[in-house]
From TrEMBL:
It is found in: Endomembrane system. The lineage of its organism: Bacteria, Bacillati, Actinomycetota, Actinomycetes, Micromonosporales. Keywords: Membrane, Transmembrane, Transmembrane helix. InterPro entries: DUF202. This is DUF202 domain-containing protein. The chain crosses the membrane at residues 61-79, 99-116. The keyword Transmembrane applies. Pfam families: DUF202. It comes from the Bacteria. Coiled coil: none annotated. Residues 21-83 form the DUF202 domain. One of its GO terms (cellular component) is endomembrane system. Its main location: membrane. It is a multi-pass membrane protein.
Length: 117
């Protein structure tokens, strides 16, 4: 098992200072991820709005589907991060950070595309 205390194996007193924050920090982070999911839902619905027009065609449907898929990925990432925060020493995986950045870029691109239509 590896953790932050492995670097301090020669000084047990230094490791005693590296403990999980039992306070409100993990809860605030979980709530921030929930707010991010809610705001992503609002953005996704605004991006999908042209698909509900009477003269909507396949491009609008594809944009709406991509926006809703992006929202689903963001909610899944938020759920995964919330579960990570329950561990003793929570760490973000580089893959989830890259996935989150990619989804944000996709949503921004789709939003810009909808504005230009």
């Amino acid at each position: 098992m590896t953790g932050p205390c492995d670097a301090h194996h020669r000084d047990p007193g230094a490791c005693a200072q590296l403990v999980r924050d039992p306070g409100a920090s993990p809860e605030r982070t979980r709530l921030a991820w929930r707010r991010t999911g809610l705001s992503a839902a609002a953005v996704g619905l605004l991006i999908a709005r042209p698909a509900f027009a009477p003269d909507a065609g396949p491009p609008e449907f594809l944009i709406a589907a991509a926006a809703m898929a992006g929202w689903a990925v963001m909610v899944a990432l938020a759920f995964h991060r919330g579960r990570e925060l329950r561990s003793r020493f929570p760490e973000s995986s580089p893959g989830s950070i890259r996935a989150y950045a990619l989804v944000i870029a996709l949503m921004a691109f789709l939003g810009g595309w909808v504005v230009m239509l």
